[in-house]
Amino acid sequence: MTTDPTVPLFDTLTIIGPGLIGSSILRRALDDRRIARRLIACDISPEVRARVAELGIADVIEADPVAAARDADCVILCVPVGAIAMVAAQVMPVMKPGAILSEVGSVKKTVMDAMEPLLTACPDIAFVPAHPMAGTEFSGPDAGFATLFEDRWCLLTPPENTPASAIARITALWEMMGARVRSMTVEHHDRVCAIVSHLPHLLAFTICGTADDLADETRSEVLDFAASGFRDFTRIAASDPVMWRDIFLNNREALLDMLDRFVADAQAMGNAIRTGNEDVIVSRINRGRAIRRSLIENRQA
Ligand code: NAP
To answer: Is 90 in the pocket of ligand 1 (CB under 6 A)?
Structure first.
């Protein structure tokens, strides 16, 4: 990690997939040139590349991941979970020895499993996966903003033999993004995210589907009179289908486990309502209120 404040953390930082997350990293790094002297953005889509150029959020724009990664000190893959290992296989063989490869996917175990042979084949590249726990329901380069990661957690899941210096540099990068950083195993990461992010999205997609399945007249009333509870679900349900398909399928085991627990708890609440068990109903609501209060205290609300 750099100790001289006039030397940037990275000389060249490459972002592959400058969508919501990738373009937010670029915007923050443009505002704070201590992060990288040169910023390269790479996307397969000509429309995304044209938009990144119009927005002026990278110094160099590349269509080819190999050209984008060759001179980089750090490459961050900001593509959907299902594309991470495929793009890694393209860039790792051309990366400089000692360079760092990172990614920001929302699921870690399946990505790590797919990465194992690549890591063995390219031992000179340090792999430091990260997951910024920040986002919105929007995607693409227009959706990003420089303060997206401020006060949010960023979870790192480095493999056991990752050089400490590479972990320190990725930690420094996310701290310069405004985030708080914590390291954990891929298994723990996937279980935590199944409950705090993946199950809530599953519920939001499902409840919107249930409302949509109701008779036409009722559905229009749902839309006319949507109270804040339903409205909050629709915001989450507006998220990108490819991204969430990949997350659900890649975190299948942990997500299904959390779903089973949720169904059991929802049935218990249903029984309490059926039998008029006021104590159970009130205690459940109070637990929810307590969790909300701690989120506010932790500045995560
Ligand atoms: P996004 O806005 O859709 O951006 C993804 C970008 O990657 C798009 O520009 C996409 O281009 C491009 N892309 C897709 N496949 C590619 C490939 N093979 N090579 C090069 N570029 C490719 O998505 P995002 O929300 O930033 O999510 C990116 C990653 O961050 C995902 O792994 C997601 O799990 C993770 N993440 C998301 C959130 C969130 O709340 N959104 C939070 C934390 C982490 P096209 O548009 O042409 O497909």
So the answer is: no
Residue 133 alpha carbon, nearest atom of ligand 1: 43
pTM of the model: 0.92
Domain range summary for the chain, segments of one domain joined by +: 10-184, 188-297
* CA–CA distance, 90 with 9 (Å, rounded to integer): 25
Cα 33 to ligand 1 centroid, rounded to whole Å: 24
12: three-class secondary structure by DSSP: strand
- Look up residue 135 and give its amino acid: G
| Residue 105: both structure tokens together | 């996917």
Closest C-alpha to 110, from 95, 139, 125, 88: 88
Pairing between strand 36-42 and 60-62? parallel
CATH topology of domain 10-184: Rossmann fold (3.40.50)
Q: Residues 33-46: pLDDT tens digits?
A: 999 999 999 999 99
Write the pLDDT tens digit of every residue in 135-148: 998 999 999 999 99
- Determine whether the shortest distance from the Cβ of 243 to ligand 1 is under 6 A: yes
CATH 1.10.3660.10 fits 188-297, yes or no: yes
